[in-house]
Structures are given as C-alpha cells and as structure tokens.
C-alpha cells in the first residue's frame, strides 16, 4: 500500500531502506525528529516559567498529539502500537522519542516535588502524570464516539489539559 501510494516499486524500497523493516525505522526516525521539534523541551522561555506552567504547556502538547484532530501526531499511534506489541524498533523508539520526553517530564515533576524527592518518587510521579495522557492515547477511538468535539475544539482541549495539569499539580 505504501509503495503504491508513493508511486514507487518494491525494489526501490528494498534498495533505499533494505525492506519493510528499514522503511519502518526510517519513518520512525523522521517522526521522532518532528516530534522532538514539537515538544516544548529546550525553549529558554519555557524553562524560565514556573514548573506549574511548564507542566501545563507539556500536557497541552501531549494531548494535542493524541487528540488534536489535524495536529494529532502519527507518532502517537505508532507509540501506542509499539507499547502494546513491540517490534524490533521498540528500543530505538524509547531512546529517541519516549525517553527524552519522559526525561523532560521528570525534570518538571522533580521541580514540583522539591529537592527532598528521590529519583524513584520523581519517576513514579512522572508515570502518574503521563498515565493520564496515556488514557487519551489508547482511548482515542472511544472519545471519538463519546465526545467527538474534543478532537476538533482547541479550547476544549485546552480545558482538558488545564484540568489534568491542575489535578497533577495538586496531587504532587
């Protein structure tokens, strides 16, 4: 299907990518680069904000990827697939996409918890925050039926991100 859509032939895929696995890995690499550009990770302006505001911004980006209609990331669907049924590219995806995002999230969570928090508490808390997003990653089809407006309404998505961030901040 991909070869037909690209107007290419199977031999070209084999030549350029070494086969389907190579094409899949190249797709992951391209999406990983795009994903890293979207994450509010390295912006000095964002890092200067209080950690509560950083968490709000991070939450909005993640929910936008999972539920954002036209701005939803195809990488989100691949991450969901890889988490449920890992392929040989799983370790690369963790290293290149999920790992850096989780590292940034735990920096924010660590700042919210304060200097007395240990590494385990910070990671567990990071998992708790990310788990709220994962609910929307894996439940996207259900939300499309139960609340279809969530994917196309930026203001509604902003309110959801605020609710998750406020809930997380209060818990932390």
Structure description:
By secondary structure, the chain is mainly α. Helices cover 78% and strands 0% of the residues. The longest helix is centred in the middle third of the chain and has 24 residues, at 90-113.
Number of strands: 0
Terminal Cα span: 47 Å
Please write the string of helix (H) and strand (E) elements. Answer: HHHHHHHHHH
Determine the strand fraction and express it as a percent band. Answer: under 5%
Largest sheet: none
- Any idea what the radius of gyration is? 18 Å
Question: Low-confidence segments, ≥5 residues, pLDDT <50?
Answer: none
- The class by helix and strand makeup works out as mainly alpha
**What is the mean predicted local confidence, pLDDT?**
85
Q: What portion of residues is helical?
A: over 70%
Short description:
This protein has 172 residues and is mainly alpha-helical. The chain is 78% helix and 0% strand.
Fill in the keyword field for this structure.
single chain, mainly alpha, 0% strand, 172 residues
Write the layout of secondary structure elements.
Layout: H1 2-6, H2 10-17, H3 20-38, H4 44-48, H5 51-67, H6 74-84, H7 90-113, H8 119-138, H9 140-146, H10 154-171
Helix pairs in contact: 2-3, 3-7, 5-7, 5-10, 7-8
